[in-house]
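Pilot study result, target chain (455 residues):
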Amino acid sequence: MLRAAEAALADGDVVTDSDRLESYRFDRSTGTEAGVPFAVAFPRTTEQVAALVAAAYEHRVPIVPRGAGSGLSGGSNAIDGSLVVCVERMNQVIGVDVGNGYVETQPGIFNQDLREHVAGHGMWYAPDPASKDFCSIGGNVNTNAGGLCCVKYGVTRDAVIGLEVVLADGRITRLGRRTIKGVAGYDLTGLMVGSEGTLGIVTMARLRLRPPPAPPTTAVAVFADMASAGRAVEAIMSVTSPSLLEMMDRTTLRAVEAWRPMGLDTEAAALLIAQSDLPGAVGETEADRLLAECEKAGATECFRSEDPEQADMLLGARRMAIPALESMGDWLLDDVSVPRRRLAEAVAAIERVSQERDVMIGTFGHAGDGNLHPTIVTPRGDHEAAARAMLAFHDILDVALALDGTVTGEHGVGLLKRAALTTELDPVAIDLHGRIKQALDPRGIFNPGKALPRW
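Predicted structure:
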């Protein structure tokens, strides 16, 4: 297999050095295990990916597809004896079609780099994960990544209109369309999005673009209790569609303020940050309407930011949530979604988990679509606390399911949540997952042991 990989790629594009392999064993998640691959391959073309996969299929060698390694569920962690196929060198934009509103790109390009490229053509790519500066488009497709703007513009699946995919036997297929509408055949494109590299390797993505929105108007509301913040979110989403609606709890606010002091109210139970990207006075009116709903729900302070720098600071505070909490100790990031009407219940239940398991949990997330990221922080190197943190992690998954939610909103199942997925899906759905996997990957070479329910 190694000889076949080296024959398919250019000199230096197959790595076996143990020190370099170590860098490609793990993604960004914590609490996940990883094996040792025999090599990492760095293809530059679709044909090279196809040659690698065909050889792996012949020799029954497991393949772990990998982009930037920014995943948070262990989905791109290496497996013992596997070949890691890393597409980071497939990072070119193939073309932008302004008239038809799409871009075709290789999968290794960073999300932010793609956004900047299409901006040069006067267009905008909407999905914006918090990790947009260092996550790749291929990884976004594989996990169906969301982001701060998805409350209005949808997640990655809503932006994908076509894919080029290498299948398990090395064949190459083009899925999807170039037209705005199209219902020919099954939605195989949608099936691939979010499949976490278990059904194929994406080598090209055709992504929907939009005209850039107007500069946003930012609204902020402070709450003395989480129930009021939850009522505000439900009310806002019933009357309007903000382009962003984010939440941070008291623990997160204190972590961010300690890490990067900016005058945040660390006594508040919750902070809501909302934006309207409607132009001019229309956007200001929508922002005022948002704040009116917050006041009705019991906000203790509401204001609309007139200063773009202040707006950037407040949104920056939300983007700093993960690094701020990470700076406080060992961390374990969860990702659950619940119906918006049950958001306050979810946060209250997570607070109870924090007390019962004796761990600190900072909860923040995309309130507008009910997607929360409870982050468990424990003292560095404290193994007993780490064990309690893992128990708390699974308690939070149970909370989400008990509230009619899901165990993952945007980070994927990976290694961390396979058991929980088995609980979320009914037996027929579990059977269907197995049948689809068997049909598209009969030898089970693509990312074995990841993303699928245990059956």
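One observation from the pilot: The first strand starts at residue 14 and ends at 15. A full batch analysis is planned for the follow-on phase.
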